[in-house]
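Weekly sync, protein design subgroup
Attendees: M.S., D.O., the rotation student, P.L. (late)

Item 1: inverse folding check
M.S. brought a backbone from last month's batch and wanted to see whether the design step gives back something sensible before we order anything. D.O. pointed out we never logged the input encoding, so this time it goes straight into the notes. Structure tokens as presented (469 positions):
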């Protein structure tokens, strides 16, 4: 017996951790070295600025979700802009998260190879993919508990890092000149690459924060949206900025920024300062947990988005079918097959597959964030019930956020170093846009033909009723 609607079993703590699980991945544990190399200590301001933009985006989402309870993020965008725009944004978001999830699965396989050196990358990645598919096919309540555990390990690691790092900074532990807070101002000062460097790193940081909007995917499986969501949003923003900004401040204070770039994870460097010989094993375990958690959240997001698209006739209707546990079985299996294909790519080119897939940047995150903000502006006048949360300084702060996101998008496109990535990103946008035009043109023709047939039947019935007998 199949169920007719998704289970609404996710509680506030599950929502917190699913969003954090999708956000805190290799972006902080490994990718932080890239952002620091771009801007130096000034990257701290980049993380704060991106956090403020995220606050507005999530506030806009919370307002719409409490005005239209249990309506998915995809459906909110459709209500604001119609089928064509929602089709483009939703499918781009699905492609983005599918590629990111494949990369996280491959990364998990590479971390497992640290201990299982004789097993090929593709085989370990397939094993991880199978485990994740199994987790996503169980009751959503148990899925929430498992993701809660995965994300908790990452959070505990960051808390330990923040505490130990603070002890070094304030002299509780003995330290030498190499671990001095003066590293924030030495080696070129706080802005060693100029003020523009704050904005040059913005796209990477926004991509790192990408995953926060997973809350929008969980709306249809959330208990008591109106009472739970506002508190979840406020707590989530605080935690994400805290778990990104504070570790970055500590890293820049303890390690000269120009010694971080190209030297792997700054967290491993920090643990080596403590004299922990097992730092490599500790961080490998944490990194493995981080990418498995992010991939778990990613598979959840892609399957629910596919389910939502199918419900709105923007994907094959079969993908909207639920099993007895209230899980979109065919949507999960379809997304799981994408993970299998991605894992098998590692058999063809194990050394380059991750870099190839990551050449598709997080431009779709920018487009999605802008769509959420613009949808809130468009829908504000059509609320039938008072939202439990209202975004402050409307509409000025929403418009300002859209301008900042648009500016970041333009900077990305005109940057000569992003030429290939820009071309790939725009190609994806063009492909999905063409698919949207074709699909909705066909839909209009079908409606027109159906209308013509109905009109013909009525005319014949009026003129020659005996022909229809």
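Designed sequence read out in the meeting:
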């Amino acid at each position: 017996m199949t169920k007719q609607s998704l289970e609404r079993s996710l509680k506030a703590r599950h929502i917190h951790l699913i969003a954090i699980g999708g956000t805190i991945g290799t972006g902080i544990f490994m990718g932080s070295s890239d952002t620091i190399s771009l801007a130096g200590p000034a990257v701290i301001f980049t993380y704060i600025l991106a956090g403020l933009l995220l606050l507005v985006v999530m506030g806009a989402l919370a307002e719409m979700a409490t005005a239209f309870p249990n309506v998915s993020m995809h459906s909110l965008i459709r209500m604001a802009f119609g089928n064509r725009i929602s089709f483009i944004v939703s499918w781009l978001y699905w492609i983005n998260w599918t590629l990111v999830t494949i990369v996280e699965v491959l990364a998990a396989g590479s971390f497992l190879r640290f201990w299982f050196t004789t097993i090929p990358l593709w085989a370990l990645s397939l094993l991880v993919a199978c485990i994740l598919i199994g987790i996503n096919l169980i009751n959503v309540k148990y899925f929430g508990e498992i993701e809660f555990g995965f994300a908790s390990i990452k959070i505990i690691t960051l808390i330990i890092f923040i505490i130990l790092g603070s002890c070094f900074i304030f002299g509780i532990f003995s330290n030498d000149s190499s671990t001095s807070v003066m590293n924030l101002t030495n080696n070129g000062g706080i802005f060693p690459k100029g003020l523009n460097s704050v904005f040059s790193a913005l796209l990477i940081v926004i991509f790192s924060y990408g995953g926060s909007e997973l809350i929008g995917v969980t709306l249809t499986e959330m208990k008591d949206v109106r009472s739970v969501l506002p508190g979840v949003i406020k707590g989530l923003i605080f935690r994400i900025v805290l778990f990104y900004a504070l570790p970055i401040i500590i890293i820049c204070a303890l390690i000269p920024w120009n010694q971080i770039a190209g030297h792997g994870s700054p967290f491993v460097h920090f643990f080596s300062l403590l004299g922990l010989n097992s730092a490599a094993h500790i961080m490998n375990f944490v990194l493995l947990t981080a990418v498995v958690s992010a991939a778990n959240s990613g598979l959840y997001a892609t399957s629910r988005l596919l389910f939502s698209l199918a419900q709105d006739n923007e994907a094959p209707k079969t993908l909207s079918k639920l099993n007895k546990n209230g899980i979109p079985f065919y949507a999960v299996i379809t997304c799981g097959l994408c993970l299998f294909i991605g894992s098998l790519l590692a058999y063809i080119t194990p050394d380059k597959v991750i870099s190839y897939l990551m050449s598709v940047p997080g431009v779709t995150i920018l487009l999605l964030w802008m769509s959420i903000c613009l949808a809130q502006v468009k829908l504000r006048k059509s609320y039938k019930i008072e939202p439990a949360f209202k975004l402050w300084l409307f509409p000025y702060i929403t418009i300002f956020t859209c301008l900042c996101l648009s500016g970041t998008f333009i900077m990305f496109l005109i940057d000569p170093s992003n030429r290939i990535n820009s071309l790939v990103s725009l190609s994806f946008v063009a492909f999905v846009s063409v698919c949207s035009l074709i699909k909705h043109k066909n839909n209009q023709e079908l409606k027109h033909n159906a209308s013509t047939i109905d009109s013909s039947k009525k005319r014949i019935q009026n003129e020659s009723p005996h022909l229809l007998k």
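Discussion: The CA atoms of residues 348 and 415 lie 32 Å apart. Confidence is low (pLDDT under 50) at residues 448-457.
Action: P.L. to compare against the previous round before Friday.
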